[in-house]
Amino acid sequence: MMQRRYLFRRFFECSLAFALLAAGAQAQTPLPGAELERLVQRIALYPDPLLAQILTAATYSDQIPEAAKWADEHHYLTGAALATAISSDHVPWDPSVQALLPFPSVLEMMAADMAWTAQLGSAVLVQKNDVLLAVQRMRHKAWDYGYLRTNAQIVVGSGLYINILSAHPDYYVVPVYDPAVVFVAPRPGFVVGTAISFGFGVTLGSAFRPWGWGGIHVAWDFGGWYIDDRLWGRTWANRATYVHPYRVTRYEAAKRVETHELIARSAKEKEEARLGHARAEEEHHHR
Prior knowledge:
Order of helices and strands: HHHHHHHHEEEEHEEEEEH
Largest sheet: 3 strands, antiparallel
Number of strands: 9
Mean pLDDT: 88
Number of helices: 10
Helix content: 40-55%
Radius of gyration: 19 Å
Strand order of the largest sheet: 7-8-9
Strand content: 5-15%
């Protein structure tokens, strides 16, 4: 059993390394528009703040698997308690990756397809404006076909650029949809209002302001975004030196500690998130 686990871990590590190397080798070659559309379609309809955090975190793709594991095992913590845990455990990942820890299902999606995550991160570093334009093209398709509209959870601003914002302060919905459905013309009789589920979301209060939440704005007109009200400026050229001024303490990996019980999400909890159902955490008995 131990040997099997070791071989599985080695296989995962080699697969991850291959994905990152492949993305790095292609990073300086801009992707064509159609390829970028394919790349962003699974997140194109996410609210602007969550989209910006995902695009930013993807540029640190090597940190995603460990962060996804931590988020899964600490999912029972929310709000200020989760923010305190992130700080007290001295997690070493970039603040943009830490910002997604309240969203285990999002990190799970990114960690489950590391080739996609690494390629997305490389595209952001090399051609950020093109990535945002691809998002807009996908949003316009969903709008034109009637799938994307303002509802009780989001406010959709149409025009040259389509914004998607939360209808409630500090609440960030994670929409669930099939790209093969929402970006093509609906078949006769299909009820477009059922194509996107907005039932699952996370409430983040003032405790998460240091990670940029509450101060995120996508500037579609010039192809960038602000995190914590500061323009995010990491590129392929400065990726080794750029440090965004988040208001959180950064810790080295050696400083990491674990001060909480580890309770992974059940299969049911994971499935509910994937289906876009409202969060209904199971009762866990803490020691």
